[in-house]
Amino acid sequence: MKLAKYTKFREEKFGGVLFDTRSEKVFSLNPTAAALVGQLRAGCDEPGIVEHLKARFNAPEGAIEREATAFITGLQKQGLVED
Amino acid sequence: MADGNTGVATGANDTADLGAPLYVAWQLTNECNLACLHCIEESGPGKAFRDELDRSQIFDILGQLSANDVPYLSLSGGEPMVHPLFFDMVEQVCAGGSQLKIETNGHFLDADTCRRLKELGVKAVQVSLDGATRETFNRMRVRGDFDRAVAGIRSLHESGVPIEINYSPTRFNVHEIGAAVDLAHELGAYSFYTGRTMYTGNAVKTWHRLAPSEEQYATYFDTLRAKTLEYRGRMRVYFHEQGLLEELRYRLEHPAALLIVLPNGLVKIINALPFICGDLRRQSLGEVWNNFQQAWQDPRVAQFVADLAADPNKTSGLHRWIHL
Q1: CB B139 within 8 A of CB B206
Q2: Please, what CATH class does the domain formed by A2-82 belong to?
Q3: Which of A59, B52, B112, B223 gives 20 to 30 Å between its CA and that of A1?
Q4: Domain ranges, residue B231
Q5: pTM of the prediction?
């Protein structure tokens, strides 16, 4: 999975932004989401992304897995990522 | 994790938090091969500004856009493809990883040019097609040639370049909107854009011949609503039914993360207002971006928008710039 052809990502102080340049919609990301997208952009698969996030952010057991899966599903629904 | 879906027009707080613009709309030159009756930029043959940016200034700005990771640029004019550095700029922007849209009248889109645009990786080419027939198009686009524009769009399609069509309504082309949407789809466009034609630029002198009535606009937007449904899933039909005043009132609260760069390097806060927030010949992109944030808070901006409510004809003066 990778960012879709028309999706651009930029890190910001608050986290990051995803910009779908076809629809010209912008999605503001918190630091966790920005880290996830950064890993996605670097070529990590979902298990690798989860491991990275668990190492970087403190969260209750299972929370990062659930949120990451839900977030990636959302990205897929919006057409922001592609296989 | 994601807390909004607010478009390039992110909310005011979001925009203020951004380290750089997300979108730069660069009007490369005021020169144009056409002299369209409705042109909002007062462009035309021999209309290049005397102080347009030189090569060194252009590439300095491009370098700053790349260094600041600006993800999306558009090149327009005038007619951007008459600029001698057009392809040099396209090459640099695309090689830097930003996405690029070209806004053109389509008169220079031969097969070789389109192949080159495809190879360089432009995101899309937007062509203005203000009519579904030769007669209407050529009347509105003085010196323009409907057949040449259509041939250009076909060349884009054959080369695999994504196509957007833009349509400006006037009293003598509103009736063709349905046919124009159909034509856009037949030509392979993935998006169709339209809205209300603005009373500014060349249109000020020709408004008595151009301005659609409210009744015409009502029919126009009804047709567009139907076409939006008809082409759902095949081509996106975007139209802005609200007037300029409503748009500007919204922008006062929610500025777009967008800089408008003029051919001489001056930067406007939005195309539909006369306010200048910087000069890229003398200031860095970072300085201009900071100015942009402040400019939207300047009381003169809100006052101008408020005055528009009483006098919609104030848009006729958008080219008399006000430096904030």
Answers
A1: no
A2: mainly alpha
A3: A59
A4: 12-323
A5: 0.92
